Amino acid sequence: MISLRTSILLCCLAVATPVLAHHSANMFDPAKQVVLDATVKEFQWSNPHIWIQVMVPNAKGVEEEWSIEGGSPNLVGRQGWKRNSFKSGDKVSITIHPLRNGDPGGSFVSAAFPDGRKLGNGAGVLPAAGAKEAPAY
Q: What's the pTM?
């Protein structure tokens, strides 16, 4: 017969398993931030993370596609994001933690639009449009 303590431990392990399966963020360099002046190609509102595909001119002026990973739709939705927060053709200044390997991509930190609108991701979130200060989480 399984003891109550063992049953509780097994239940906790079963609940924690999906967390252990989540990928690591080690591919991003949290010590660096890069600001990209970009044009949105596509915004993917999908689980487990949103993705923003942007076009950024490289040093030679040639457009390169960058893949930016953000938080979950649930997380960013609580911060005021919508399925249409980014639209194809939008000009945006996006701050990211770049990929360690130098490929064109990174982890979303914040975005600023020409109209003054700002969006953030997780800790240090920027205020939603019309808000006086960032929500506390």
A: 0.72
For residue range 4-55, list pLDDT tens digits in order: 565 554 544 454 444 444 556 788 999 999 999 999 999 999 999 999 999 9
What DSSP line would sit under 70-117, residue for residue? ---HHHHHHTT--TTSS-TT-EEEEEEEEBTT--SEEEEEEEE-TTS-
Q: Does any domain span residue 12?
A: no
Bond from prior residue into 48 cis (ω within 30 degrees of 0): yes
Examine residue 88 and state whether it is found in any structural domain, yes or no: yes
CATH of the domain at 75: 2.40.50.140
